[in-house]
């Protein structure tokens, strides 16, 4: 009978070990599922990083285009200002020339013209009429 009792004890022990083995297999299966989820998340992160890189490239290209357009606008503005200044100077000269012409006709004399810098560092033109 001792053998039968020993065998039953041994059998119970093996069944307990088998249960532990099955529990470990379940834990391993759960870990494998988590590992699969982790790998899916890694793939998703990699895709998001790739998409982010595409947006960064687009952003850099847009910044470059913006800088290019700003440079073009600056050049255009510069040329418009220069053109305006030439027209303005031309109008000033025309106005002055008209004044001299009127004075010539009224006084019947040639004016003496003299340029001198003003306190604003712009040229001014004075005309004097001198009788001999």
Largest sheet: 2 strands, antiparallel
Assign a percent range to the helix content: over 70%
> What is the number of domains?
1
Radius of gyration: 49 Å
Helical/strand content category: mainly alpha
N-to-C span: 160 Å
Work out the number of β strands. 2
Unreliable segments (pLDDT under 50, ≥5 consecutive)?
none
Order of helices and strands: HEE
Number of helices: 1
- Note the overall shape: rod-shaped
β-strand percent reads 5-15%
Average pLDDT score: 82
Strand order, main sheet: write it out.
1-2
What's this model, at a glance?
With 132 residues, this protein is mainly α. It is built from one helix and two strands, in the order αββ.
Walkthrough of the structure:
By secondary structure, this protein is mainly alpha-helical. It is built from 1 helix and 2 strands. β1 (111-117) and β2 (123-129) form a beta hairpin. The mean pLDDT is 82.
């Amino acid at each position: 009978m001792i053998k039968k009792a020993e065998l039953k004890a041994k059998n119970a022990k093996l069944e307990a070990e088998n249960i532990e083995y099955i529990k470990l297999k379940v834990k391993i299966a759960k870990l494998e599922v988590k590992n699969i989820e982790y790998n899916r998340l890694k793939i998703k992160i990699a895709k998001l990083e790739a998409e982010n890189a595409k947006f960064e490239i687009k952003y850099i290209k847009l910044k470059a285009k913006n800088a290019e357009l700003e440079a073009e606008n600056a050049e255009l503005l510069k040329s418009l200002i220069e053109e305006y200044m030439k027209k303005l100077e031309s109008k000033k000269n025309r106005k002055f020339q008209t004044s001299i012409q009127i004075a010539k006709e009224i006084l019947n004399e040639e004016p003496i013209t003299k340029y001198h810098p003003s306190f604003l560092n712009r040229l001014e033109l004075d005309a004097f009429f001198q009788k001999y």
